[in-house]
Amino acid sequence: MxxxxxxxxxxxxxxATILGVTVSRGLRLSEGSGETRIQPVDVEAFRxxxxxxxxxxxxxxxxAADFRHxxxxxxxxAAAYVRVVGRNAAILVTxxxxxxxxxxxxxxxxxxxxxxxxxxxxxxxxxxxFRIYIALAWPDAGLAAQPILDGYRDLxxxxxxxxxxQNPAQPVRISSY
Amino acid sequence: MLQAHSLLWHYLWIGPNALxxxxxxxxxxxxxxxxxxxxxxxxxxSSLGEFTVYVADLASSVTPEVWWRVFWAVLGIEGLLKFxxxxxxxxxxxxxxxxxxxxxxxxxxAVGGALVLAxxxxxxxAPNDSRFxxxxxxxxxxxxxxxxxxxxxxxIFVFSWYFGVRMGRPIFGISIGLAISACxxxxxxxxxxxxxxxxxxxxxxxxxxxATYNGCVLIWFYYLLVHQNIVVKPLLPPADSNLDLWNRExxxxxx
Lengths: 177, 255
Fold this sequence. Notes:
The structure holds two protein chains of two kinds.
Chain A: H1 2-29, H2 43-49, H3 52-61, H4 64-99, H5 105-137, H6 146-166
Helix pairs in contact in A: 3-4, 4-5, 4-6, 5-6
Chain B: H1 7-29, H2 37-58, H3 64-94, H4 98-125, H5 133-163, H6 169-193, H7 203-226, H8 240-254
Helix pairs in contact in B: 1-2, 1-7, 2-3, 3-5, 4-5, 5-6, 6-7
């Protein structure tokens, strides 16, 4: 009886997950939905948070207990940044996928590159988040976040290229606005 | 009405499988069997297998033991076809994206391994009536197949959702139909395999399974055949505001 109930619960949860994912995907893809908007990320602040030199400096200056507390606060802030970066990557993957079937070969190629880079960044963000959570449990552990920063930079370039290819009439602003 | 060999019972057993054979013929005519070979093989072989079991059920010359042997054989073939189909679905979702293909394959193997262990454990813990070993075994095998199928399909949905990878309408249709059928049948076979209902009341479970499968075949028709004639609008045309925001981010990055 217990086994049957366990399996029924598993089946119900799986069905709810599958249907939930389908509905949430539909909402995420719908035009004008708030979630589809890219959130700006302060890369410099993020770089500062995951800078090993800064961590080392804090370790030398603060008592061990204080260092662990400060490090945890910094890691939580870094996790928030990584989550936003991952979400932005997913949005750009969606944008790229909708442009992949373009009849213009250049646009389709740029879209494919954007999707690949977005997926790579999303994967790296998930792994970085995992490492941040481990570091939260063991604040003395190291943290490798450089792939996130590099990936984000590459993704920005490709997104810009795709934007330029899709709207050639509209100049892409790189300098001040 | 909810009795074995009632008119509804005959329709629910024959109807979806006849539809699936017609569906396979349409796939063949439209050349879609080249794009979805495992699904095409599944549509033909599973419906022929079900017809065999149905005929064996009606034939008075077939003893119960022979019927269960036929059932076992069809179950084994259907199970293999379903796993080939799941591999085809997953391949279509991740293979064109090198960034996640390797990670995806590693994760699905890990999930598959864990599900095999769970299925074996649950089968070992299930009550075993040695008088009807062949029947118990069939129920446990069904339970194991549906547990694996449900888990793997749920993983594919979550994985593609997490990475924002679009499945494409036909693959989504195949997956959602298969997933609904697997989840419902897992629950019903869990009830059958663990002796929750007395054998006399188990016909109700057959009706639930057959009605669900009927619905799933209609889902496959809808997603693979009806929607092919509709021009699909790009899901999310890049909005200017998004690109502007992105450019602003880039500016900040370049400073």
